[in-house]
Amino acid sequence: MLSFLKRLVVGRPLRSDRLGETLLPKKLALPIFASDPLSSVAYATQEILLVLALGGLTYLFLAPWVALAVVVLLAVVVASYRQVVRAYPSGGGSYEVASRNLGRSAGLVVAAALLVDYIMTVAVSVAAGVDNIISAAPALNPHRVSINIFFVVVLTAMNLRGVRESGKTFAWPTYLFIAGVLTLITVGLGRALAGHAPVAESASWAIRPEHAGLTGLALALLSLRAFASGCTALTGVEAISNGVPAFRPPKADNAARTMLAMGLIAITMFAGITALALVAHVRVAGNTCDLAGFPGDCTTEPQRTVIAQLAAAVFGGGSAGFFFILATTALILILAANTAFNGFPLLGAILAQDRYLPRQLHTRGDRLAFSNGIVLLALVAGALIWAYEGSVTKLIQLYILGVFTSFTLSQAGMVRHWNRALVTERDAAVRRGLHRSRAINSLGCAFTGLVLVIVLATKFTHGAYLVVVAVPLLYALMRAVRTHYDRVGAELEPEPGGVVMPSRVHAVVLVSRVHRPTLQALAYARATRPDTLTAVTVAISHDEVEKLEEQWADRRLPVPLTVLDSPYREITDPILDYVNRLRAEGPRDLVVVYIPEYVVGRWWEQLLHNQSALRLKARLLFQRRVMVVSVPWQLDSSSRRQPRERVHAGERDT
For residue 634, what are the β-bridge partners? Predict the structure, then answer.
């Protein structure tokens, strides 16, 4: 049944030599790697307005300037990462750039920041998508967390089926969302130019300011905080640079073109939504009860999102266009988490290959996806959604800090990369191109570094301090993992003289009673021709020991039986003491312990057998110069499972 359910969810396993078939054309790579920055335009404008609303309606005049700053920053970052894609087509993106040019420590800081931000991408994207679903159906609000978790599970299942297959599923919602938003902007701004501007349902509402009469430094801080919140439009921009190996050849060129298309579409949609929101006089507030004129119960009923209000103003509330915009927005926001479901496992696999994370993250699953990374991401993101009750307002404060950390270090690394290239390059035309690339990355480094400071200063006390703590902890964890792997590797390195043969081999067969598994273990141990061979039993019951000795004598078994006394009815310690006495006979002696075990076919049967053997093996594995050999005996229940096992012999665990 478990195997059937796995095949139903994940699909049949793919051969390793079919990896090339999973490479992506640009039309599929765009929705897979760029759905996050494309979808973030659905809430980036809203985040700007929410912050400016803290001062009341007076400060909404700052919104166009804040949005313009976000657009300029997005253009600079896209141009900068196009240089990364062409210079480092092997993937790894910011991590590889920082590691090669700024050192391993900088690379690990980037990796830690990106891993944290990928987790936040899943949590925020799914929560924002559910927000739009609730805007269309407010009755679902009490079930917000459950709906969030459900969509995380669905995304996990789709990504476990493989990158290409999930891309086909996610492509059409992305393109429908783009078409819907561009239509919304065109129709809405067209009506405004014709003198019939759309009016939002909240246009007549007032906002009770939390901070009135802001001037000077306070006003500047409010503007910077609004800008920092609007920078959520840049999340996921680097995912294409991490996923270059997933593109069809020529990989770097196709990735660069996809990134350019993503930048142009995202800028157009973000600018259009912001302009339309200002034209329609949209009003939103962090606390619904701060909206004077809100028609419902502000303590229980949620306010509609900005894009929902625009759709209602342009197409009419309850119209087909309204529900189309909300449906595609909710879908693309939820599917935007797919950017993280591709970026996190890829980065995790690279880090695992470099021995900074467990090697299991580098293993591909049945569908040639890095399934362990996918499952890990889903578990952590689901826990965050549960902890923060699926609230975008709470989760957004932990967002984008990691993005700009990786942006800044990556661009600084690219500047050093071009500096090194200029030292050796003599061709004048090539040098002009290198100077141009260095200028782009220098500008990107300066911009993103400044934004990093702004984001840290404006969001630190609102929850971003948790990310500031999480990134160093993750950095320390990766360092510890690498130290462990290095230490183990050094210990496993063979000595110059080769392996020293043991002086003697002492074989010990554990016996509970005379039955087929015991006789098989004795026969196998004798076949290995050890120097000494002893059968050992522990005297828990005097009557059972006498019966065992009688059976041993009746069968005339050619192996001496040693009985170990156990006055406290404990099995493990007497055997360990006996094994240690054998080891003490010679520093180069080897002790081999043979343990007969039952092989059963049902999970509940396993609970009834082999429990003492499991405890003993766990203790023996820590003894030097001791080998543990399991001698299996297949019961009938295991034999009945063999045909099914042969069918699935080639399957591996996800």
Answer: 599
